[in-house]
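Figure 2 data, in text form.
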Amino acid sequence: MQKKITTIIFDLGGVLIDWSPEYVFLKEFRGDRVKMDWFLDHICAWDWNANQDAGYPLATATEERVTMFPEYEELIRMYYGRWGEMLGFAYEDTLGILKKLVGDPDYRVLALTNWSSETWPKAIAKFTWLQWFDGILVSGQEGMRKPFPEIYELLISRYNINRDEALFIDDSAKNIKGCESVGIKGIHFKNAEKLVHQLDDLGVEL
């Protein structure tokens, strides 16, 4: 018999918050998605941004990238210079699920996010519902990030989590493997409708 879930941990970007460099760069590339994708795959690549999510300074990262690719300087500086434009809306359907869970005394609800400490204040200012969580661990503030086990262990110790009674929801398969490697159940998020059924299967009723 599986243990009752008592702690539910949400990822933010891709689960509750819409964020995409496309909001800036698709316009800059005049709607040419192929050129935009090449830029985001080779110049301001996803793994480069992930390094800043682990606490690397945005200004330093930008200058290093400009030195490597001076012909793209203007576009590179837009990445963090116009980062606020990449921050979209809240996913209202998933937010509805979160609201039900934070209102249920049977559950403690936390968040674990890969997010730069320098851009995090913009999210706090835009999404007041982030105050609903019982705690949020931000990768850039800790100098570590998902999917590496250290950040899950830090979350467990900081919030005194019983890993056998915890559940983590993330849209990244790698991040789910990371949480499972330290004994936390994971749900690979696809959409809110499916999440409701997945939670029900684990005994979490909304």
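Caption note: The first helix runs from residue 22 to 28.
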